[in-house]
Structure to design on (666 residues):
DNA sequence: TAGACATAAGGAAGCGTTTCCAATCACCAG
DNA sequence: CTGGTGATTGGAAACGCTTCCTTATGTCTA
């Protein structure tokens, strides 16, 4: 059986195709009785508008694109899951674009903006790029999640400085005063988001406020990958004046710290306390104390902002929306 | 500046639109010289074919749909990541459809088959449905990953029976003879894949072959969710003749087992050994001994099969492609 | 009752491709 | 030189929708 088209609906409802289209698009210019008749015909035929035709004619794609790096990392997955779940009941499809580098990101967004394959875009932790080269950026609703690099667009993110303070204050309140830090390199040209830097600064502020000791030898800033955090941990914990607690700027790194500590025969938290950052799902199993940021919720809120923009033309303010942070005390402190 | 269309290319290359289209679609019916001229014009204008028009006219969407349940579970994410990475260099976009129930799955696939929003479909762990109601299923290339429920389609999956044997034989070879089992309920109407059942049967075969003791009180089949596995673990480990080792049919459940054992003051593996199934990323951090199935690779292979089908018309055989399993010995045995 | 104006509805044009058919051209055999 | 054949090309039609323009139908006011 052929897939029914708008023409079939029009014939069955004894109206013109224009009227059917108006019913589909909730135009007010239709008499209630006519609308009813058309809806019945749609129902009876099981008519579903052809998305390609709709897109070609009206420019609407019913697609929301999500551009994300590091698709495999749990914190990204959890944000993505939030996005997915919010889109679930909408009429929008979610297209996933994974990127590996700043260049790739630039190409991808350039393409998407010119090709108009999507009605809106969610940029998950986008790298720093020169948006001056993207003149048409303003025509497409874009919401940024977890990045300070696109201040001219609505952005949901956390206050990393406050997060660093929070973690440190918690460690201090537990009685640990000598605190080490393990984070990303500060000047990553591709994906450096400044998160590590702010969290570290927040830590320094908290230490200063409490009059706690600082020691630059306790602070390590590495690249990505497991081994670097492992190496740093080993170095820190081998010192004669080793830190009494370690603040890792992500839960994944904190797991490495836990592993290395255990391999070195140190007890957690008796010999060394550990706090992470993110509160990914696995942290619960690892009994890791951490700073929770609302990963799933942040995805949900991002979609809400974007849908309100697309559906109700409520363009959100181009500002940073700061998300709440909380300490989740578990077994490593 | 307006986005260039095929007409602009045709004008600039001094040819007709049909010729441009033939060049775009690699038809052989174009003189080499003409083809060259057209390609230059495309290059100069930065022309990119409009996907919507293409789809409306030619029926090709350049989209591959992935239908997956449990989007948040690590094993699914890892499969998905494999799929994503393989699609990365192709011209296909990946659209993610998450489903919650068998009904939802049925509706979704029905819609996709009639709407033709995708050129091909990957079904990740689809539930058991009545495919008789989907007469057009045969028109759309579909590859199934991790499910025995669609035997009339090419399917990549593991041999769960062999996996159960493998895990059990390994535990026996470590000297643990009293072995418990924690798995899903056997008759889940929605997503029961038979995996638990086959893994359990494999275990029973291995026990019988080795003459090891069996005890039905050591075997628990629960539903989804953390608490059920936790409860079962507690029950098992509270017995006076408690099992010396526990085989959990997923790593996630094994984590619960580890947690409960620890809370009960039991040492792993000295008091109770634990083996999981899947080898998700987190298992490495948890030092969990487990049966590794190639999650990421399975996604890659699925895409290879599908792309070969779409691009080269190599329709794969409608059979089960069995993926290899290996024991990953770590700290819990 | 007539004119003005709002509301409702029909349907052609247009969106940017692919594909099909017809036209043209080059070449060859007879 | 003529007719036939295959390769190459141009461009109309078609895909299924939205939108705009037009016409028809009320409805209200003076």
């Amino acid at each position: 059986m052929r897939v029914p088209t708008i023409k079939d609906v029009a014939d069955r409802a004894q109206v013109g195709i224009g009227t059917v289209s108006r019913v589909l698009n909730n135009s007010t210019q239709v008499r209630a009785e006519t609308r009813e008749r058309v809806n019945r015909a749609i129902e009876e035929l099981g008519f579903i508008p052809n998305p390609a035709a709709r897109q070609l004619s009206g420019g609407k794609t019913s697609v929301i694109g999500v551009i994300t790096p590091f698709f495999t990392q749990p914190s990204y997955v959890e944000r993505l899951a939030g996005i997915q779940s919010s889109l679930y009941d909408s009429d929008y499809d979610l297209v996933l674009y994974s990127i590996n580098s700043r260049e790739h990101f630039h190409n991808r967004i350039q393409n998407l903006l010119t090709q108009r394959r999507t009605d809106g875009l969610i940029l998950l932790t986008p790298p720093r790029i020169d948006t001056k080269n993207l003149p048409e950026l303003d025509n497409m609703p874009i919401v940024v999640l977890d990045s300070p690099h696109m201040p001219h667009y609505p952005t949901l993110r956390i206050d990393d400085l406050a997060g660093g303070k929070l973690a440190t204050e918690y460690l201090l309140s537990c009685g640990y005063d000598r605190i080490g830090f393990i984070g990303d390199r500060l000047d990553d040209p591709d994906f450096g988001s400044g998160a590590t830097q702010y969290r570290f600064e927040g830590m320094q502020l908290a230490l200063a406020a409490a009059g706690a000791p600082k020691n630059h030898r306790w602070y390590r800033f590495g690249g990505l990958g497991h081994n670097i955090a492992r190496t740093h941990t080993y170095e820190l914990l081998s010192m004669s004046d080793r830190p009494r607690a370690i603040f890792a700027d992500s839960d994944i790194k904190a797991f490495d710290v836990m592993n290395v500590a255990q391999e070195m025969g140190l007890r957690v938290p008796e010999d060394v306390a550990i706090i992470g950052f993110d509160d990914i799902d696995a942290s619960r199993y690892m009994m890791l104390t951490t700073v929770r940021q609302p990963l799933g919720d942040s995805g949900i809120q991002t979609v809400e902002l974007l849908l309100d923009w697309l559906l109700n033309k409520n363009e959100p303010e181009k500002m940073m929306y700061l998300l709440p942070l909380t300490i989740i005390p578990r077994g490593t402190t």
Observations:
- Chain B has a mean pLDDT of 91.
- The interface with chain A takes residues 3, 48, 50-53, 55-56, 61, 63, 71-72, 74, 77-78, 81, 84-85, 88, 93-98, 111, 114-117, 255-256, 258-259, 281-282, 285-287 of chain B (CB under 8 Å).
